[in-house]
Task: structure prediction
Amino acid sequence: MSELQAALSSIYEDVNPSVVSIQVTQKVSMQMQMPFYGLTPQTEEQYQQGAGSGFVWDKQGHIVTNYHVIEEADKVRVLFSDGTNVLADVVGTDPDSDLAVLKVDIPAEQLHPVTMADSEQVRVGQLAVAIGNPFGLENTMTVGFVSAVGRSMPAQATSMSSARYTIPDVIQTDAPINPGNSGGVLVNEKGEVVGVPSAIISPVQASAGIGFAIPSAIVQKVVPALIAEGTYTHAWLGISGTTLIPDIAQSMGLDEDQRGALVITVQEDGPAGTAGLRGSDGEITVDGQTLPTGGDVVIALAGNTVNTFEDLVANLARFSAGERVTLTVIRDGAIREIDVTLGKRPQSTAIVPATPQQQDEPSTPQGTAWLGIMAMSMNAQLAKAMDLPADQRGVLVGQVQSGSPADKAGLRGSDESVTVDGQEFAVGGDVIIAWNGESLVSMPELQARVRNSQPGDEVTLTILRNGRQQELVVTLEARP
Result:
C-alpha cells in the first residue's frame, strides 16, 4: 500500500502542472432560446459560465481540451496549477472527435507539456488516473482502472433530429469522472496520457463508475492538424450499415456464426459507390422487426479484421482522406477484395446540435413567423432507410416543439434511427414535399418560406407520412 501511495503521489506531482482548468463565458439572448427551453420572454443579453479541463500540449502554448467545453464560448480563460490565469484563443476545433486546441501567451518555462502514451497498448485492468476540474474543483485526482477498451460513443450529445459521428476505440474507466473533468487527462501508471475524459453514463449527472475517454491515438492524430490548419479532415467511405447477426447471416446463406459489417446503403457518388460496393436489397422479419439483408458483408479493411460495424468505423478512423484501402467483403457467398480511395467526410451530412441559429428558420427579431420544428434535407440514404425512392426530396421533420404551430397542425417528428458512416440519423418523421402546392426540396427552401411569411398566415404543407401523401394546414404564429 505504501508503494501504491508513493506511486500515485509521484504521478500527481508530475502530471498536475500540465493540467489546466478552463473557464468559459458565453453571451446569450434569452429571447432566442425560448423556443427550445420555454424561458420567460426577455430581451436583454445575459451571460452563462461554464468550466472544464485541459492540458498543455507543447512549449508554444497550445492547450488541448474537449470541443464541447469551449463550444460557442465568447471568452475562454485558462487557469494553471500555479495560479496563472490568462485569456486563450481558439486555434482549431473538431466536433467529430470532440477535440479543440487553444493557445495562451505565457513564457515557455511556465509550460509543462504532457507525455502521450499509445492507447492501442492499453489493456483492461490497468491503473487509470484522472486529473481535472470536476465541479470547478481544480487539480483533483481520482483513481481507478481501465474497465473496457474499444468502446464507441457519439462525438456530442445531440437532439433527436440531429446526426452524430462516432468516436471509436474509446477507453472506459471506473476512475470517478464528473462534470468539469471533460478535456482533462486520463493517465497510466507512468503518468502518460492514454485518453481525454469526455463523457459519463450516470442517472444523476455525476460519476457512477462508467466514464469514457477519447483515446490518445486519436488525440495525437487530430491535434497536430488543428494546430496547423484549424480543422481536421476525416476519411469517408459513404455507406450505412449494421453488425451482421445470425438471423441475417442465415438469410444470406452464410454460417450463423459469420461475423462482419453488413452494408445497408451505399451513397452512389461516394467512395464506396464509385468502387462498386453493394448495399442491401432484401428484408427479413425477426421478432416482428424488419431487418435488411443481401448486401456486401465487410470482414476486413486494409487487412484489419472487421467483426462489427463499430470495428469498421474504428479501422476507418486510422486512415486519411485520399488513401487507398482494400475492403475484404463477402458477396453472394464468395470472398472478394474491393479497392476504395477514401474521400473527405462531407460537412453537409453532419447536423450539429440545434442552437437558436439552427431552428426551422434563421434567428430573427421577435414577431416574425414561426413553425416550430427541427429538420434536415432528405438524401438517398435517409430515403432508403424510410422505404422511399432514392431520389425522394423534401425536408425530414426530426422534432416538433410541443405547443408550436407545427404541433397544433399534427406534424410528426422522427421516432427511429439509422447509422450512416458512424453517424446516427433520426428517421421516420413526416417529409415535407410542398408548401402551398409548390415543390419543396431542401431545408434552405423551407427556411426561406418561413422567413418570408407573416404570423397568422395559413400554409398548406404537403407531406409524406408512412409513404403516403397527405396535406396539413398550419397557421403560423409569432415567435414567442
User: Anything to note?
Assistant: Residues 29-43, 157-164, 348-367 have pLDDT under 50 and may be disordered. The CA atoms of residues 178 and 207 lie 5 Å apart.
